[in-house]
Amino acid sequence: MSRLAIKICGLSTPDTVGAAMRADATHLGFVHFAKSPRHVEADQLRALTAQVPAHIDRVAVVVDPTDDILAELVGTGALTALQLHGKESPQRAAAIRARFNLPVWKAIAVKTRADLDAANAYNGAADRLLFDAKTPEGAALPGGMGLRFDWTLLRGVPISLPWGLSGGLGIDNVAEAIRITGAPMIDVSSGVESAPGIKSVDKIMAFCKAAQQS
């Protein structure tokens, strides 16, 4: 059985980046979206990843980004992937992948089985799908709100791309989420925070341990 991939998303301080690495997270996520309490600028991203070893992936999370924003982030040399968390079309995802020559992940907002089926449109355009809970209409943020969807929707659904599970994961339910969905990757943000945007070293360690023991 392949190793479970764990992404700690929304990191913004050296101590929490260090905690994620000590806990054997495989992916570190950095949000570049001004409305988010987890927002980091390009120079912060470069500094935060300076001591991250090459075998740990570093993912920038962006929302309907312009090419200029992507160029600034990619120009840091810090990234191994770009995660699109807005309303980017398959065509836009493919264009970003072609221009910036990095793997592209596409977050898929899920509420019903139809949302999962619609994700097939990204075959050939994205390298990984991330299934996240659909946020309410008019919400300020497209993710990181601690919401979860009905995980049983994923049962028996053919997914042709590598994928991960996000939305509402925490220390107490991550093992259940893996059991129900068979997710090869899990992605947590608000579930390891003490307050919005404030990651907890202890919660990061506990979450990774709970996931790894599932």
Automatic annotation (TrEMBL):
Which superkingdom is the protein from?
Answer: Bacteria
Question: Which pathway does it operate in?
Answer: Amino-acid biosynthesis; L-tryptophan biosynthesis; L-tryptophan from chorismate: step 3/5
The top EC class, named as a word, is isomerase
Q: Does the keyword Amino-acid biosynthesis apply?
A: yes
Q: What are the protein's UniProt keywords?
A: Amino-acid biosynthesis, Aromatic amino acid biosynthesis, Isomerase, Tryptophan biosynthesis
Any keyword Magnesium?
Answer: no
Q: Which reaction does it catalyse?
A: N-(5-phospho-beta-D-ribosyl)anthranilate = 1-(2-carboxyphenylamino)-1-deoxy-D-ribulose 5-phosphate
Q: Where is the N-(5'phosphoribosyl) anthranilate isomerase (PRAI) domain?
A: 6-209
The record's EC number reads 5.3.1.24
* Any single biological process term in GO: L-tryptophan biosynthetic process
Write out the GO MF terms: phosphoribosylanthranilate isomerase activity
Tell me which InterPro entries the record gives: Aldolase_TIM, PRAI_dom, RibuloseP-bd_barrel, TrpF_fam
Q: Quote the Pfam families the UniProt record gives.
A: PRAI
Q: Which NCBIfam families match?
A: PRK01222.1-1
Q: Which family does it belong to?
A: Belongs to the TrpF family.
Q: What is this protein called?
A: N-(5'-phosphoribosyl)anthranilate isomerase
